[in-house]
């Protein structure tokens, strides 16, 4: 059981050893920084996904929210907010743009949660629909064009967007944000009544409702958290690229799901940790960048990641069955 619980960390060590032997310059500072920047994106996205999956849900819209958030931020930096009826264009400071972008993610998450709880729509369907809507809105926002060179303008007071994609004392700012968010959301999940409610809904929603848990409210908050995490990733990704494109974040929801599942979050709900998810994000980051450095084609990368997700779910199911058998055996021995 101990070996199963630490399986993700063991896999990470094996991958590091494997790619160090097969990929040139894998153990270098440049590679470490590159992996760190990618892990920051997958990890933050997976934090929100972990909350959703623990409740027994899924959020397929996060990748599209990443793209839409980047486009909205990029548009505000380059073009401002045009009030055509008044003939006025408003330009916002970087902190204000960050707040607007995060509020956008929270709003989309709230809509997801409301549709799921109010109309009893399956999370898969509700967030799949939102994925298409958000991706379409991202393209409509700029008519499919890219906002490039997002450095802002000194005279407009909106310089400094590149900070989120830069390094702070040699460490990617995105990675620093990941650590801060991981600590905060881990404490919330483990030490607060809200975290207990999240687990209880995933473990047995009917029992949670009977015990007084406001299930619908908690679910909506969980999807809001997922939307906020996606918006933060959109900010960091557009800053790293110094550009915003509607295609940013395509299929990243799969990376987030994979990181969460690899980290021990059960697709059946009720089980998961933020720490495990972060280790899972490192596994996904190492696999992605390691395969690129080894010259593996993009098509085979998709196949390999699919296999990894399937194996993670199989192992998770095996662990759950083993735990159930051990619990049953213990009860029989105590009789």
Summarize the structure.
By secondary structure, the protein is mostly helical.
CATH architecture designation: Orthogonal Bundle
The name CATH uses for the topology is ABC transporter involved in vitamin B12 uptake, BtuC
Strand order of the largest sheet: 1-2
What is the overall silhouette? globular
Q: Work out the count of structural domains.
A: 1
Describe the structure.
With 335 residues, this protein is mainly α. It has one domain (28-323): ABC transporter involved in vitamin B12 uptake, BtuC (Orthogonal Bundle), CATH 1.10.3470. It has helices at 2-5, 7-22, 29-54, 62-78, 94-118, 123-142, 173-191, 193-203, 205-210, 215-241, 252-262, 274-293, 298-334; strands at 81-83, 88-90, 147-148, 167-168, 171-172, 243-244. The chain has a two-stranded antiparallel ribbon with strand order 1-2. A two-stranded antiparallel sheet has the order 3-6. The protein has a two-stranded antiparallel sheet with strand order 4-5. This is Sugar ABC transporter permease.
């Amino acid at each position: 059981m101990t070996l199963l619980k630490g399986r993700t960390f063991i896999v990470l060590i094996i991958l590091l050893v494997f790619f160090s032997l097969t990929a040139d310059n894998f153990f270098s500072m440049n590679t470490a920084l590159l992996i760190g920047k990618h892990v920051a994106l997958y990890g933050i996205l997976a934090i929100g996904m972990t909350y959703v999956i623990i409740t027994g849900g899924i959020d397929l819209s996060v990748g599209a929210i990443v793209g839409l958030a980047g486009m909205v931020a990029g548009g505000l930096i380059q073009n401002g907010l045009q009030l055509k009826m008044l003939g006025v264009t408003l330009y916002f400071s970087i902190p204000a743009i960050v707040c607007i972008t995060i509020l956008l993610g929270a709003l989309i998450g709230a809509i997801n949660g409301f549709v799921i709880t109010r109309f009893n729509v399956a999370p898969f369907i509700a967030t799949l629909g939102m994925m298409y809507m958000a991706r379409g809105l991202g393209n409509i926002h700029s008519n499919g064009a890219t906002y490039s060179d997002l450095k802002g303008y000194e005279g407009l007071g909106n310089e400094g967007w590149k900070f989120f994609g830069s390094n702070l004392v040699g460490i990617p700012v995105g990675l620093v944000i990941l650590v801060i968010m991981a600590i905060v959301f881990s404490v919330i999940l483990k030490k607060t009544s809200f975290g207990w409610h999240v687990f209880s809904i995933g473990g047995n929603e009917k029992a949670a409702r009977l015990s007084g848990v406001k299930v619908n409210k908690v679910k909506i908050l969980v999807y809001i958290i997922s939307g906020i995490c996606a918006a933060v990733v959109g900010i960091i990704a557009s800053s790293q690229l110094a550009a915003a494109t509607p295609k940013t974040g395509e299929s990243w929801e799969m990376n987030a799901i994979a990181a969460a599942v690899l980290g021990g979050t059960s697709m059946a709900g009720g089980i998961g940790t933020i720490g495990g998810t972060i280790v899972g994000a490192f596994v996904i980051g190492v696999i992605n960048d390691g395969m690129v450095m080894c010259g593996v084609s993009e098509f085979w990368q998709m196949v390999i990641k699919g296999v990894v997700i399937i194996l993670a779910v199989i192992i998770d199911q095996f662990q759950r069955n083993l735990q159930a058998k051990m619990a049953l055996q213990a009860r029989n021995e105590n009789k």
